[in-house]
Design goal:
It is a single chain. This protein is mainly beta. The chain has one domain. The protein contains one helix and eleven strands. A hairpin with a 4-residue loop joins strand 3 and strand 4. The radius of gyration is 19 Å and the shape is elongated.
């Protein structure tokens, strides 16, 4: 077989085995899991957790209005510095092939991802808050609370 075909098949198998759960917001921080069909026989992927919640970590930051020498126009604004994931389900360690992860995406009014954070874990214990504190963002404006209209999260179990 061609190496690229073997690599492609390996990627399909790893993704199929990883138990990826993608969810949509039902209430302000509770998620129902939506799981896709996969493979040749179209079997359901078992979600890694049956439910979870996501809380935003908020901080106040001083905005000097781009006039550092004029303190009269300074104001505070709320920024998102991270997400806290929590689930009532355990996710045990896998075989060591891949770590588990939680992805927290901040969405703008148009539904585009404007910032994304990801954190990895070996195993997860139920009801143990798990923090995601580093975001890749399009601009510094992306983490301002007034620019965020939705949060999407992805949970990947360890394999």
């Amino acid at each position: 077989m061609q190496p690229i075909i073997v690599l492609g098949l390996l990627v399909i198998v790893v993704v199929s085995l990883s138990g990826i759960g993608i969810q949509q917001v039902e209430s302000w921080n509770q998620f129902d899991l939506v799981v896709q069909q996969y493979g040749w026989t179209e079997k359901d992927i078992e979600p890694p957790v049956s439910n979870f919640s996501v809380e935003l970590i908020l901080e106040k930051a001083l905005n000097n209005n781009n006039t550092p020498n004029d303190p009269t126009d300074d104001f505070f604004e709320t920024i998102v510095t991270g997400c806290i994931f929590s689930s009532t389900d355990d996710m045990p360690a896998g075989t060591g092939l891949s770590l588990g992860s939680v992805i927290c995406k901040l969405m703008n009014a148009q539904g585009d991802a404007i910032a994304e954070g990801r954190a990895f874990f070996v195993s997860y214990t139920a009801n143990d808050p798990f923090k995601i504190t580093s975001f890749n963002r399009i601009t510094n404006e992306a983490v301002k609370l007034n620019n965020i209209f939705d949060v999407t999260s992805v949970v990947e179990a360890p394999i």
